[in-house]
Amino acid sequence: MSTHPSPPARPTHRAAPGPAGGAVPPGTVLHPFRGIRRSASALSRDRTPAFYVLEQHRGDALLQRGVVGALDLAASHAAVLPHEHVLAAKVRAQHRITALVGGNPEPVLLVCRDAPATDAVLRRATASAPDTVVTGADGIRHTLWRLHDPGQQRELAADLATRSVLIADGHHRYAAAWELRRRRGGRPGPWDRLPALVVDSARTPLGLRAIHRYLPDLTPREAAARAADVADVAELDPATRRPPRPGELILVGDGRRYSLTRPRPEPLLRALAGRPGAWRRLDAAVLQCLFIEGVWRPPAGARPVRHLHDGDGEPGSVASGTLVLLAPPTEDDIWRLAAQGVRVPEKTTSFLPKPPPRLLTYHHGHQSRGIRLGGGPRQDRVAPPALTAAKAAPAPPSTRPP
After folding, report:
1. Whether the model pTM is above 0.70
2. What pLDDT band is residue 391 in, cutting at 50, 70 and 90?
3. Domain 30-208+349-369 - what CATH class?
4. Which residues on neighbouring strands pair with residue 333, listed in sequence order?
5. 331's torsion region: left (phi>0), alpha (psi -120 to 50) or beta?
6. pLDDT in tens, 288-346
7. ∠ CA(160), CA(162), CA(168), 5° rounding?
């Protein structure tokens, strides 16, 4: 849960992207910026502001297409819908990353819905030769095109300025950007913006995976016995490896599998007292509040709960402890909650694919040098620094400065 202040209060009546009625409400304000692009052999420092079209492929399959720009934090405030709580320690970690890099080494991932004008601009851009192509260790190919034509930039920015966006990944970076802006005392500068990849999920849907929990100091048999006081419990055939259904938790370990469904109303209401009513229908919230913090509350000194993403594989070889499997929420669920101003517990959602770190860096100093505009795209090419871990411990925002 959030232990960090959040960005300024946002009106919660705007649920979906796109203009409503007559007057167009404030939308997502995205600016071109001077990016630093990483390839296998060099860094390219772009001398003129651009939007960056990003495509991600696995083999011939297109996974995602979107545009990277500099999100205007204050101007976009009412249009950006966070959906997850953040932790203060992770926000502080993001401050350290920003200070170390001198900016932001990767964009936050934002989702809009059904933006045909933006999609048309991106498709035209990708018909030309790309500026950067990098293939990651996971086999995903990341391709960048610089969009520096002023007319196309205006067309794209005007379309996005009518739309809301959902934060799919990067809540801690978003919160840290607001905090940095506050620390600068309102002085204008490159810290007023944050790099963001905007993806139209109506055209290239993101994958939404579950994040499971592993309790190292609790056996499945004991977990099931305690859970029986507050929910329906059924033992499953260990050979049946079906995923959990919405509203169901599956306990795995020690050669056993149990299904947990239909929490009793009274214990559930007590566990969720003071929490949003929508959490009663959110599996991750029920697991956290009713079970992990309630009937399974670990003793002092117990090892912490671990989070395992779908795709890590079901760790059936776990020697001890209990793996709790959850069904992922739907994107519609997350949009609906975010539009109501409801934030879900941390580690509820995992949207994929994410933009890779250091492929495109938003460096504060590089934005502030007053480089002459016009004359076509120019670049400085320098040797890349040694690249260490793809991503240091995150620390984004859950606070909105007034």
Report:
1. yes
2. very low
3. alpha beta
4. none
5. alpha
6. 999 999 999 998 889 999 999 875 555 455 678 999 999 999 999 999 999 999 999 98
7. 55
Count of Cβ atoms closer than 10 Å to residue 324 Cβ: 26
Non-local (6+) Cβ contacts of 187 within 8 A are: none
Structure tokens at 280: 């009663």
Position 123 scores a pLDDT of 97
On the 0-12 / 13-18 / 19+ scale of CB atoms within 10 A, 300 is: exposed
Could you tell me where in the chain the CATH 3.90.1530.10 domains are found? 30-208+349-369
Residue 369 phi, psi dihedral angles, 5° rounding: -90, 0
d(CA 240, CA 250): 11
pLDDT band of residue 164 (cuts 50, 70, 90) is very high
The separation between CA 57 and the C-alpha centre of its own chain, rounded to angstroms, equals 19
Q: What angle do CA 298, 241, 249 make, to 5 degrees?
A: 35
Structure-block tokens of residue 302: 């117990």
Angle 122-210-79 (CA atoms, 0-180°, nearest 5)? Answer: 45
- Using the structure block, give the residue that is written with the tokens 């095109």: 145
